[in-house]
Each structure stands twice: as C-alpha cells, then as structure tokens.
Specification:
By secondary structure, the chain is α/β, with parallel strands linked by helices. It contains 20 helices and 13 strands. The strands form three sheets. The protein has a six-stranded parallel sheet with strand order 3-2-1-4-5-6, with helices on both faces. It is globular and about 55 Å long.
Length: 448
C-alpha cells in the first residue's frame, strides 16, 4: 500500500515512519511518498528516514517529490501535516496577537483563527486533488487547527477524511497511569472539539475510576494536567480538561507569561528548526542523532509559558513521552485497510453525537474504527459550561470556513470578534489588519 505524507519535509515525519517500521503484518505500507514545497527540507527528512530504516530489508520505500499531483495519484492513504506560512507564519501570529494583549497560540484564539484563514483554502484545494486523483484514498489530517481543517476537507471528501491529535491520547495515558490502569484496555470518556475537550471518566471493568482520582489531591498533583489546572479546579469541573483549555481557564496569566517570555513558542521553534535543517546541509552531520536531540529539546519545552503561568516548573520526565499521534495514525490505517477493529479518539463529523451541534460539525470523540471508517460513539450530553465554549468556538470555525470562500474582511472581523478570547470588536479589526500586513496568504481578504 502507498502512503503519501503532505508536509513530508516536516520535523515530525520520522515519528510516522518509525511506526511504519514496526508494522510487519500483511497489508502494511510498502511505499512512502514525501511531498513538500521545500526541496531542502525534503532532502533532510529523506536522509533521516534512510538512516532510520537502518538497512531493514522490508522497510517501506521512500520517495520524495514537490509535485502534488504526482504525490497524491494512486495513494491508499494521504497524511496531511502541512504548515501554510511555515514557522515564520506561526511566530507572526503570536506577535500580532500579543501586541493587542490577546492570545496568539497556534490553534487557540486569534493565532488559531489567523492560521485557519491561511490554511483552509490550501487544504480544500488538496482535498479536491485527492478526490480527483485518488478517490478511494483515506485522508488522515494532522494539519492544525485540526478540527477546523478536517471539517473544511470533509466538505469535499465526506467521511473519507479523519482528523487525529495526540493531546487526548497523552491525557488518557497519563490519567490511566496515575490510576494504575492499562490505557489500552480502559475506556476513556472524552468529548469536545479539537484542543477543546474534557476527560469525563475512565472506566475499568465497567467502573468509573475518575472519582477516585478527583478525591486524591496528591495523585492529582502527580501529572501534567493536574499541575497545570490545580486539584481544586479539577474537582470543581468533575473532569480533567485537555491541556489546551489552560488558555481559556487561565487566559490572563498565560497571556502575561507569553508577553514576559524571552520568545514565543513559534519563535523558539522557528530558530530551533532552522538550526536543525541548516545542520543537515553540513557534510558529516549524523541525520538521525541530530533529529533525536532536536526532538528531545522540543518536547521538554512544550507549553512552557503555561507551566510558567501555573508556577509548576519544568515537565516531569514521565510527561516527555510523545502523545503518540503516529501510533494513532498507524492504528487507524490498520483498522481501515485490514479491518482490525479498534477504538480511537478522532476528529469526525458529529452525526448527532452531540445534540448541540449539527450533523456535519467535526467533533473529537471516541470512535469505533473498521474497514468502513470511523464511527463516533454515543456520549452523554455536555454540561452547560462546556456547551458554551464548544458552541462559541464552533461558531467561530464556521465563520472562518465562510470567509475562506467569500474573502470577506467583515466576515474575518466577525470570526475574531466572536471568539471567547478576543475581548473587543475594535481589537478584532486591528487583528485582521495586522495579520493581512504580515501574511501574503491573507491577501484574499479583500471584499467588504
């Protein structure tokens, strides 16, 4: 089978390829096509993957191309991990928002809206090429903002596009570990939107173990989310929020920490990865070892501003393990290609799962996965506090989708102004103007 990775020069591609190397079953991926618009990044990742394969005789063949149609044609699976505007665009998203005193994070708040406005038109074009050149392919979307981009692509591809994220996987694994449960067999009751969800229960043998965790302050303080949010707030919610909800629940503290930091996350990654790709051009650079060192630094500094705002210091070693999106991607491909039925937390169309949203709204929930795709599992209704956030953010996403088609500046202002983390229509107007000045990709916002 053929897997195409869009954004194939991206830094996290070796995680996906490593998962493929461990798959020895019949019907596995035998050819990986890397597509990227940057020839230098493609060359760097090709070298890392060659060393990663280590002469393994049945390792998937790796080819690289800058031609999208060539990459997509005849693919069985298309993994989308593009970054429109690159890390320079992410750094600009943060800078423009912070100048207005609001959050500029990659997927949350003003930064997420700006990134979505740049990305949706490109993602829709990709979906159309897949539909034309590989109509039987399944698209696995990891491109951020993952829920929004998946919904945009689903308007072309229907249920043949499925979004994945490693945040719920990591959260479920950490909670299960604290409770002494096996995350592979525990049932994780998780529901929401991408980067806006709550773990509401963890059942082992049919019994919910989460109340036991919420009653134990010491256990709550022993893992990442417990330290970020604090035991008192988790008990008040009766749930463990996705770490990205820290931007909502502690917004003022987080914005201040971002403003006071030496550099934003996007600026850090821009410098770090520029250094990595520059090193990869030097003769004698060991590709795989260089990649591993850079990855370790990246993981250790993840959400550093939030931990600074919460006063919890550096990440514990136990929290440094990747959330495992590459494992989710592999399990998803196995389930679809070989009918190895499994349950995964995925971004899929709602289909009535959450009554407060329409059928086509993409949500993030546990799904049964088989050869016919991903099927969302029935979940209990959201509490009103969660309904408010979910419906408000979904309304913003819908405005972004509409603006991507209309090119309306007024629609873009509306998208920013309606977001819970943007506190003024005047600020929203200045954000639109600021982002248009920074990003050539937003020049299409030219209509009234």
């Amino acid at each position: 089978m053929k897997l195409t990775i869009l954004g194939g020069g991206g830094f996290r591609v070796p995680l996906v390829y490593g998962a493929l190397l461990g798959d020895q079953a019949d019907g596995r991926i035998t050819r990986v096509t890397l597509h990227d618009v940057d020839a230098g990044r493609l060359d760097a990742m090709s070298r890392v993957l060659t060393e990663q394969a280590g002469g393994q005789p049945d390792a998937p063949e790796v080819v690289a191309t800058r031609d999208l149609d060539e990459a997509v044609r005849g693919a069985d699976f298309v993994f989308s991990a593009i970054r429109v505007g690159g890390l320079a665009g992410r750094a600009a998203d943060e800078r423009v928002a912070l100048a207005e005193g609001v959050l500029g994070q990659e997927t949350v708040g003003a930064g997420g809206i700006a990134y979505g406005l740049r990305t949706v038109p490109v993602a829709v074009d990709i979906a159309r090429r897949v539909a034309a050149l590989a109509p039987d392919a399944w698209v696995i979307n990891f491109t951020n903002p993952a829920g929004l981009v998946t919904e945009a692509m689903s308007r072309v591809l229907g249920d043949r596009v499925i979004g994945i994220c490693d945040s719920p996987v990591g959260l479920g694994r950490r909670v299960a570990k604290v409770l002494g449960a096996d995350p592979a067999t525990a049932w994780i009751d998780y529901v929401g939107l991408n980067h806006l969800g709550w773990l509401r229960g963890l059942r082992v043998g049919g019994r919910d173990q989460l109340p036991r965790l919420l009653d134990d302050p010491e256990a709550l303080a022993s893992f990442e989310e417990g330290r970020l949010f604090g035991p008192d707030w988790l008990r008040s919610l009766g749930a463990v929020p996705n770490e990205y909800l820290h931007y909502y629940y502690f917004n003022r503290e987080t914005v201040r920490a971002y403003q006071e930091a030496k550099q934003t996350r996007g600026a850090f990654l821009l410098a770090q990865q520029a250094g990595f790709y520059e090193k990869m051009t030097r003769p004698g650079t060991p590709p795989l070892a260089t990649w591993h060192r850079t990855l370790a630094e990246r993981e250790a500094t993840y959400m550093a501003a939030n931990r600074e705002a919460a006063g919890v210091g550096e990440r514990d070693e136990d929290d440094l393990e990747s959330g495992g999106y590459e494992k989710v991607a592999l399990a998803l491909m196995r389930a679809v290609a070989r009918d190895e039925r499994t349950t995964l937390i995925l971004n899929v169309r709602n289909r009535g799962t959450l009554s407060v949203l329409d059928a086509d709204a993409v949500i993030e929930v546990p799904c049964f996965v088989d050869a016919n795709g991903a099927h969302p599992v029935a979940v209990d209704p959201l509490p009103y506090h969660a309904v408010g956030l979910v419906t408000a953010v979904k309304a913003v996403e819908r405005e972004v989708l509409a603006v991507a088609e209309s090119g309306s500046r007024a629609g873009a202002v509306k998208a920013f102004a309606l977001h819970p983390l943007v506190d003024s229509v005047s600020v929203a107007r200045r954000l639109v103007d600021g982002y248009r000045a920074e990003h050539p990709g937003l020049a299409y916002l030219s209509r009234p």
